[in-house]
Amino acid sequence: MANSATMKYYRFILPLFLSSFVLFTCTEEDVISPPVCLLTHYAENYSRIDKGSIIDYTYVLTYDERGRVIDKTYYERYTNYQQKAYHDTVIYEGNRVASIARKLFYDDAKPLILWEFEYTDQYEIVWLTNIPAAGLPPIRKEVVWRDDKGKIVRIESTYGREDYHPFSIASSYIDYTYDNGNLIQKDMHSFQIVDGDTVTTGRQREEWTEHSTVKNPFKGLPFIDLRDQALSDYIPTQYFRNTESSRFPNRIDTVSWQRTYRMNEFGYPKKYLYDCN
Question: Which residue among 37, 121, 207, 226 is least crowded, i.e. fewest CB within 10 A of its CB?
């Protein structure tokens, strides 16, 4: 039977040995977060039944060393012909987006559209400028309101310039509603100034009634045309949209769709391509 001195020795050395074993066997892989998948490619396509052709739209995203997306390149393919159409370049100041410039590949010298961002304590302002040939008003101002979690809750927009054309002045506001981190409703009201009076020109309600458990690969992307897709934590699987227009006051146009997704090993939809590390 061991004496008391020996027992004290084992009582001291055994915890030390076990703690050393844990320290030397616990690797970095055991404590780091699960891999993050950066979306690199996504695409859309449709067929023109009357022409028998297929048009593909492919978008390729580029990231910097900090994992921030800095460029989106847009490709078009008509049946067997593919071309680069335009690319969006994102410029940051610190962690915030300062500007996004869209340029055509055949005229890379000047922007087709330029978004410029300003920030205050309560909201951000987005100025959109585009060339007149695009068929849109030359100036658009958006005031983006966010909640304490950074979610967009309202966007107030003004289109056109007083010195451009009196009938080009129009405005709208959009209210966003969330549930458990997912966008579930978007209400838009649009107006126009006619002879000094503000006239309602349209109303639109969009609803995302169901979301999957699939992680949203568009979440957090800075591009304006992906704003609605980037607001939810998980991908919406069911959608409805009702539109009313002052041009057709007795008609409501309805659009709906439902989708399902398969997941990759990291919980992202297999429909898109990623760089996971």
Answer: 121
